[in-house]
Design a protein that fits this description.
The chain has about 400 residues and is α/β, with parallel strands linked by helices. The protein contains 14 helices and 21 strands. The longest helix has 16 residues. Bound molecules: cytidine-5'-triphosphate.
Amino acid sequence: MLRGRRVVLGVSGGVAAYKAAYLARRLVEAGAEVRAIMTPSSRHFIGPHTFTAITGTPAITDLFSGVSPHTELARWGEVIVIAPATAATIGRCANGISSNVLAATVLASDRPLVVAPAMHTEMWEHPATQRNIETLAADGVTIVGPGSGDLAGGDSGIGRLVEPEEIVAAVEHVLAAGRDLAGLSMIVTAGGTREPIDPVRYVGNHSSGKMGFAIAGAAARRGAAVTLVSTVPYLADEPGVDVVEVDTAGEMARAVWGRAAESDVVVMAAAVADFRPVNPADHKIKRSRDGIPTVEFEATEDVLAGVVAMEERPIVVGFAAEAGDLEDAERKAKDKGVDLLVANDIARPGSGFGSDTNEVTVIDADGSSESWELMPKDEVADKLLDRIRDLNA
Ligand code: CTP
């Protein structure tokens, strides 16, 4: 369950900080990638090298090291778990006070947060701490513990850090939420293909790959195993996305067809060339020597049709870039035999190539269509994945 998942472990300054080392070890043993961040006070209790050695990555101790450690870690992690969380750290997190590297990372992150408090009973029961805990809970933060038992300095009562196993279980629970596509294997294509004329020139199109990237990233975050077949480099470094880089329609066809039988879903978001130059030149065509060339075209492989024609085929989602003709898209959905066709009008403002938003009409195999308002491509991706999940049910 934790295999390959990215966990940021925040350690703040309490005696229980030594237990955070054990927690780091349990997370690593469960297959998680762990990166530790330590508050300045935590270093009175445990050294950073302990976490560096256990996690295999240098523990972060300073907000002013590197370019921007807090935003970098916030983007990297799928979850942040703070154990032990002192009253001061809880106060910072509840009130958005980014005065050290851990609190700044929490403020820079939109990912789930798990907090395991540890402090003396008086501090835990203080109205200020209770207010802060209520604020965190209202923000959707998962609070684990504290438990009761022996505390520092020979005291006992409520305020003890819960055992690492309980914290691991909370992290697993948080990471499992929203993973409604777990077990689904999906191919997503993205970008425009490039068909060579000679070694330096090609016939291409304006597709940026953004829609396919949004679908691949959202599907992976929801638990699907994604193979992204792309003509554009995918820089997001998202866990759960395997990238296969291709250039031409032929390469894309081979990459998709070779994997389609083992996939549950194929989403053809790429703008695949319909024609390619016949016999591309093996040398750069020279104006001075060769004059103006005549380029002859031939049909490319129809990647989507090849998948639809498979005997036991995955769910197939096609895309259609239209210029204002919904009827044409409805006909296309039928003719192509896809389960869903996502039509967008590239002429509309906010919907063209390279845009971060899209306004689409989704047509199903029965020909019934649903038009969605203009929204960010990430939201289009999630809504489309809801439809795909329902088709797969
Ligand atoms: N597609 C494909 N292989 C191709 C061309 C297109 O798999 N050689 C896929 C695209 O990825 C897209 C869908 O087919 O999901 C629709 O592409 P589109 O170019 O709109 O369809 P065409 O049948 O080429 O329609 P048109 O007649 O408008 O060109």
